[in-house]
Amino acid sequence: MKICVAQTRSLKGDILKNIENHLRFIELAIAFRADLIVFPELSLTGYEPELAGKLASDVDDARLRVFQEISDKNQVTVCVGMPVKSSGGIRIGMIIFQPDQDRLVYAKQYLHADELPYFVPGEKSVHLNIRDTKIALVICYELSVPEHSENAFKNGADVYLTSVAKTADGVEKAEKSLSQIAESYSMITLMSNSIGPSDNFIGAGKSAVWHKNGELAGQLSSAEEGLLIFDTETQELIQKTI
Questions:
Q1: Which secondary structure element, helix H or strand E, spans residue 136, and what is its range?
Q2: How far apart are CA 77 and CA 99, in angstroms?
């Protein structure tokens, strides 16, 4: 299968403009016959914890219908980032659009201490099965929690797919962690990171893919929007800046 990680610059709190930008990336990924595309953490709003209460929405938000339509039409799975309302509070959500299926939400289970004033943790893992490939979904800080990758391995994941919003220091740590996870569990690992201003930091990009042996397959720069599309069968990598 072909997995695409997008590296995008979100406009602070502007959901409609961010949807427009997402659609550009999705159309390009489809042109390269991607089966799955994932965007950075909270990509539709930008990573803005202090605004999350105002920006949070329900999984059935009508503004997101276009993602389901493009998923159905092109048989592609799309994962976008959005703060999501729950009975217990606001969650850091990844909303998942699969062809001809109901929307799913994966909510970040392990929160960084800085996120606790604004968000509540999710309660369960979500794994996708696409073309006989099992994919574990990961949101940012979770890749630093050993229990998370261990659980993915125990559940038979072939791919560890991470959606993050990280600084340059955070990217450096994530690169080491994802290489080690790939090597330890023989899983392909991928990282979709943002670029540009977010909250009180600058997203450092460098979205990347690692082979099962931990070796880097390819990486984007720290400053440009773009896509990485990795074929899990042929190991072919397509790199495209936008």
A1: strand 133-139
A2: 7
